Amino acid sequence: MPDFDYDLFVIGAGSGGTRAARVAAAHGAKVAVAEEYRVGGTCVIRGCVPKKLLVYGAHFAEDLKDARRFGWMVPEDLQFDWQCLRENVMAEVDRINQAYTNTLKTNGAEIIEQRTTVSGPNEVTLADGTKKTAKTILVAVGAHPQIPHCEGHEHGITSNEAFNLDGIPKRILIAGAGYIANEFAGIFHQFGAHVILMNRTKDILRGYDLAIRDRLLQISMMKGLEFRFDATFEKIVKLDDGCLEVHMSGHDPAVVDLVMFATGRIPNTKGLGLESAGVEMTERGAIKVDDDNRSTCPSIYAVGDVTDRIQLTPIAIREGQAFADNLFGKGGGKVDYACIPSAVFSHPPLAGVGLTESQARQKFGSVRVYSSDFRPMKNVLAGRDERALYKMVCDGETDRVLGIHMIGPDVPEIIQAAAVAVKAGLTKTQFDATVALHPTMAEELVLLK
Length: 449
Ligand code: FAD
Hints:
The chain is of the alpha/beta class. It has three domains: 6-144 and 266-328, FAD/NAD(P)-binding domain; 153-263, 3-Layer(bba) Sandwich (FAD/NAD(P)-binding domain); 342-446, 2-Layer Sandwich (Enolase-like, domain 1). Helices cover 31% and strands 23% of the residues. It contains twelve helices and 22 strands. The chain has helices spanning 15-26, 41-46, 48-67, 82-106, 159-162, 179-190, 210-223, 313-328, 357-364, 377-382, 411-423, 428-432, and strands at 6-11, 31-34, 110-112, 116-120, 123-126, 131-139, 143-145, 157-158, 171-175, 194-198, 226-228, 233-238, 244-248, 254-256, 258-261, 265-267, 300-302, 342-344, 350-354, 367-374, 388-395, 401-407. Strands 1, 2, 3, 4, 5, 6 and 17 form a seven-stranded mixed β-sheet that branches. A five-stranded parallel β-sheet has the order 8-15-9-10-11. Strands 18-19-22-21-20 form a five-stranded antiparallel β-sheet, with helices on both faces. α7 links the parallel β10 (194-198) and β11 (226-228). The longest helix is centred in the first third of the chain and has 25 residues, at 82-106. The radius of gyration is 24 Å and the shape is globular. The termini are far apart. The model has no long low-confidence stretch (mean pLDDT 97). Flavin-adenine dinucleotide is lined by residues 11-17, 34-37, 41-43, 47-48, 51, 115-117, 140-142, 159, 180, 268, 272, 304-306, 311-314, 316.
């Protein structure tokens, strides 16, 4: 048996890597985890956590206005202090970063704060040139924002920089139509920016139910967001006054103060040395893995965004946990990718679990759809003309709920609970057998017609 420095060397201390390192160390393995930026990874440092805090911050713009209808004396000239929010969010990020670091250390994992590359099936090379050996290497390096190839793209930012802006731009063009684009569109709009969302197709949020996506589009337009569809970048020109003139196909140029690319995320495998160990990758640079997260090199595994399966934090965490349990614990860890709930923290948010109506029709043929299109009580009193839409897609033959899709206040919170029932394979009749909890928005789920 060769002697290795470590049982496990993890590259990347994000959602997947941290979980795998911590659990493997707790199972008794000798573990090191290398991180080139900050422990916690995308989710904690520049993803889910700071994003959600900005979403909360942005929501006050509407809440404070609505509060007047509920009797609160809110001054007309509402002031928003971006620096205050930014600093508070950063302080919270620092706190969680420290908590993650402490958890790794308490469980006995060694943290190496250096970029690390693979230099063989059982060897890694740190940025300072030191080589370390490990019986198993786990690659959990995540992904980074994709930037369109167009003249002047260097003038744009990505979500990575959005959290550290000096101020809120008056006008921002956000390229993309996925969840990051739509979430930041809502955030910047609520903070007072004029937002242009530009996308190369006519679709937003592909993968979500069409009726729900349409409702978000309709509400966003009503709020004043501008959409430019079927548009691709031609060039971005920096004008003498510092503004950016964005030239795009099919539309007049747009002059804005900031351009943000939210056009997808690609795995961080460039320059990682994976070829040295015979690790195969997809065309997009994702590491190919089997059901056990093992790459084409038997001693190298990969979890999370770098495998480009489902780029969500809870998935990276589950994959990291399953990997560590299988290799260093009692085994039995397999990730079940069916019925994963997901949400878009737009304004208002939307969420879904299971099959969309069109997916269900393709798969099952006979499908029954129930829906509720209503104005939430709070919106009615606030004089806010925004309607919520809940949709339930059922198998026409068995009555089983195949999917639930919602847009409206707090739907991400509601869908998490509803997802338990969908995953458990409950029927519409079983939903209806549950007494409504009145008055809530969620009660619509057991009253759908
Ligand atoms: P990461 O968390 O990205 O961790 C990878 C780590 O590896 C990083 O810390 C990186 O610095 C490090 N690294 C990379 N290369 C090296 C190297 N060579 N050497 C050493 N270290 C290296 N998901 C959700 O579920 N809900 C959300 O609301 C949500 N919001 C998001 C919002 C934004 C703006 C973004 C960008 C992402 C969001 N995500 C969300 C996605 C989520 O953040 C990712 O799916 C998750 O972080 C993936 O975890 P990971 O472990 O694969 O990678």
